[in-house]
Specification:
The complex is a heterodimer of chains A (248) and B (334). With 248 residues, chain A is an alpha+beta fold. Chain A contains six helices and 14 strands. Chain A folds into two domains: 2-97, Gyrase A, domain 2 (2-Layer Sandwich), CATH 3.30.1360.40; 107-246, Cyclophilin-like (Cyclophilin, Beta Barrel). Chain A has helices at residues 33-49, 70-76, 82-97, 122-129, 133-141, 235-246, and strands at 2-4, 12-17, 22-26, 54-59, 63-68, 107-114, 145-150, 157-160, 175-178, 182-186, 189-192, 197-199, 202-206, 227-232. The termini of chain A are far apart. With 334 residues, chain B is an alpha+beta fold. Chain B has two domains: 2-185, no CATH class; 190-315, Cyclophilin. Chain B is 17% helix and 26% strand. Chain B has a seven-stranded mixed barrel with strand order 12-19-16-17-14-13-20. Classes of the chains: A alpha+beta (248), B alpha+beta (334). Chains A and B meet through strand 3, strand 4, strand 5 and helix 2 of A and strand 15, strand 19 and helix 5 of B.
């Protein structure tokens, strides 16, 4: 189902079924901060609409996936396609949402202790690009990143905006255990491991911040569409912040 | 009231129908693999069908019961026994205090669901009682059951089924004639290959024509490295016509994704929230319960259906459950 939204910006989107219990709204094919903000705004609008039978709205880089309970729709309107019914509602909500100005993005600063035992692959990244450790840190802390999506694990952000000089293909062999809080580079993204997890990204540092805590509301420090900056800290500060309970 | 765990089995975990509402933060939905059997087991003991049950995998656990317990077991056939006597399946059964309920090895299917009347006493985390094994939260302390655990159960509402408890109290044999029961899952009685229907997905047309023909003409086998997160399938590899530029996006229960090696993976209950591999299609909701019962080595033949057919199949499935729900409600008022 194609839909041109009736606003002056003419946001084009395409709504496709994702099986019989989800649909995906595709907004484009180019990853950008503007796209991430648009996806986030639409996700918020759909969430706020509280459509009965909708169970989840999942923003990604250029799309939004809406999970629904098909039996809720089949019970209400037997013989009608739940996908068609929900698509119509989605188009209606999105056309209204496109008139609303998005909230300014949140900016979240992430303290990072770079190198040493906190980021043992920093030397690999240095060697791959002919850079010194100080240069890698400078290039990694300079940009303002944005969260393209959360995925892989609860609270794991795929951060876009990595300097081209740091783009490094993933490790050939993933590590069975990456320490919690590890800040890493995987291809053109940088990310943070919220738990101890297996992973193939290059570890360049570690943050004492808790990225995910199921007892918090919301449970995740970051959300899609947020902006992120990395701030280097000394290892003593990292240990101090950790003992102050930020490791959690 | 509790079930004392004498043996944990390979993988026995508390699951409900999933942790919805947090996928935008990367939290997997999880929940029962075979939602149909899970819901049926709950219905049979008068619970809300979304209540938590124990999902039992391949080699089952053993419990001793501290109190008389009204329970039901649905799904794969483990030939469970109570003090050495065969426990009737797919119906409400009253098991006496002190008895040992022992699940053996799975004979048919690969997952059974144990529901107790009143439900299990575990605190919801992020709105769900499902165990998220990799994240270590939800269910019973965020992990699979093991020897020594005490899984508390909630009180059955005594007004809910006047007479039922009494009627089944006498002996296990009395449970052979309960006021209601479900029928056995017929599709599991066949040796396979099993027909699994799917709706064509986002990248269907990006695959090589031969590959698409092979996908529907060949038998795929459930790989040994299959788990609650995904089923790896062994069979003819599926290759793309040409490389495509993939941007990660949301996936669902039943998404058939194809990594570069060409061997498809079907995403199951504990799948990640997003994926970056090309998608061939999505298994229809009506066939996910059967797929969830197929153990490693089982053969599958995939059949393409339209989205409309997928909904019709699901509506039929739901009618079976609705009939059971009505039967329980009618009988329960007597």
């Amino acid at each position: 189902m194609k839909s041109a939204m009736p606003d002056e910006k003419h946001i084009e989107c395409e709504i496709r079924p994702l099986g019989d219990r989800a649909l995906t709204i595709e907004l484009g094919a180019t990853v950008s901060f503007e796209m991430a903000r648009r996806v986030r705004m639409l996700a918020d609008a759909l969430q706020a609409a509280g459509i009965s039978g909708v169970r989840d709205c999942v923003p990604a880089f250029c799309s939004l996936t809406v999970h629904y309970d098909p039996k809720a729709f089949l019970e209400k309107a037997p013989g009608h396609s739940p996908f068609e019914l929900l698509s119509a509602r989605v188009v209606e909500i999105l056309s209204r949402a496109s008139d609303v100005l998005p909230h300014p993005a949140r900016m979240i600063e992430i303290p990072v202790c770079y190198g040493r035992e906190y980021g043992e692959d920093i030397r690999t990244v240095c060697a791959a690009h002919g850079l010194s450790e100080a240069e890698v840190i400078a290039l990694h802390t300079a940009p303002t990143y944005f969260v393209g999506m959360l995925g892989f694990a609860p609270g794991f952000p795929y951060l876009a905006g990595l300097d081209e000089r740091l783009v490094t293909p993933r490790r050939a062999t993933p590590r069975p255990r990456v320490p919690r809080g590890s800040v890493a580079i995987g291809g053109e993204h940088t990310g943070i491991y919220p738990f101890e997890l297996p992973g193939g990204w290059h570890l360049i540092g570690r943050t004492p911040l808790a990225l995910f805590d199921p007892s918090r509301d919301p449970p995740s420090l970051l959300a899609a569409g947020d902006q992120v900056r990395f701030v280097p800290i000394a290892s003593a500060d990292c240990d101090r912040l950790a003992t102050e309970g930020l490791w959690r | 009231m509790a079930l004392n765990v004498v043996r944990g089995g390979i993988l026995s975990s508390v699951q409900d129908l999933g942790r919805w509402g947090f996928q935008r933060f990367g939290v997997p939905v999880g929940g029962a693999m075979d939602e149909f059997s899970h819901r049926l087991a709950n219905l049979l003991v008068g619970n809300d069908e979304a209540d938590a049950a124990v999902e039992i995998t391949l080699v089952g656990p053993a419990f001793t019961l501290t109190d008389d317990t009204l329970l039901a077991v649905c799904g794969g056939d483990f030939e469970p026994q109570v003090n050495g006597e065969r426990l009737p399946r797919a119906r409400p059964v009253m098991v006496k205090a002190g008895a040992t309920l022992d699940f053996g090895r799975c004979k048919r299917g690969c997952r059974a669901y144990l529901a107790v009347s009143g439900g299990f006493q575990v605190e919801p985390v992020l709105g769900s009682r499902s165990t998220f094994l990799r994240g270590g939260f939800g269910g019973y302390h965020g992990r699979a059951l093991k020897r020594g655990d005490v899984l508390e159960t909630r009180e059955t509402d005594p007004a809910l089924y006047p007479g039922l408890r009494e009627r089944l109290r006498l002996s296990l044999a009395a449970s052979a004639h309960p006021p209601w029961a479900a029928t056995e899952r017929v599709e599991l009685l066949s040796p396979g290959p099993y027909a699994i229907r799917f709706v064509r997905g986002r990248h269907w047309e990006c695959f090589d024509d031969d590959a698409l023909a092979r996908f529907q003409a060949s038998e795929y086998r459930v790989g040994a490295q299959s788990d609650r997160q995904g089923y790896r399938l062994a069979g003819p590899p599926l290759l793309l016509k040409e490389p495509i530029n993939m941007i990660s996006e949301g996936v669902t229960f039943g998404t058939i994704q194809v990594p570069p090696d060409g061997e498809p993976i079907v995403l199951m209950a504990s799948r990640q929230t997003t994926g970056g591999y090309p998608r061939l299609g999505e298994v229809v909701s009506a066939d996910l319960p059967l797929l969830a019962q197929l153990p490693p080595g089982a053969g599958i033949r995939f059949q393409s259906v339209s989205l409309e057919q997928a909904y019709a199949l699901l509506a039929q499935r739901e009618q079976d459950l609705a009939r059971m729900r009505q039967a329980v409600q009618l009988q329960a008022r007597r």
